[in-house]
Design a protein that fits this description.
Oligomer: single chain
Strand content: 35-45%
Radius of gyration: 15 Å
Largest sheet: 7 strands, mixed
Order of helices and strands: EHHEEEHEHEE
CATH architecture: 3-Layer(aba) Sandwich
Number of helices: 4
Shape: globular
Helix content: 25-40%
Distance between the termini: 25 Å
Length: 151
Amino acid sequence: MKAKFAALAPEHAAGLSRVMTAMDPWRRLGFSADSLGRFLLKPDAALERTAILDDGRLIGALAVRSPWLRGPYLELLAVFPEAQGRSIGRQAVTWACTRAKADGAANFWACVSAFNTQARGFYAHLGFAETTALTDLIQPGEDEILLRKNL
């Protein structure tokens, strides 16, 4: 399946935030649908929020912050459970990295919860290297791992 990417519309925010709060890592880290909804809707010129679509139906989203450390930062990637395992996440990250490289970025950054071994493997498979642990960044007792991909 080939995913389509489009600007995240305000009407996507409520449904997206509800699905995300039922998924790890957001569930385990205690995010609420309200806080995720605010993040998805808050004006921020440095954050591009993109819907991931399958035949016009929302199946996930990504949010990329730029500029960051000599390259963009993937601040959010969510693929709905029913769309997982179909290379949607790979397509989304590849799409974002291709755009960043075309803009002259040297790096592409992401962050993953240390407990999220599936996501850590996913990013490693895409060429991201774990750079450092960020202790208690989001939730006490939970570390985040900063990832870097050289473009």
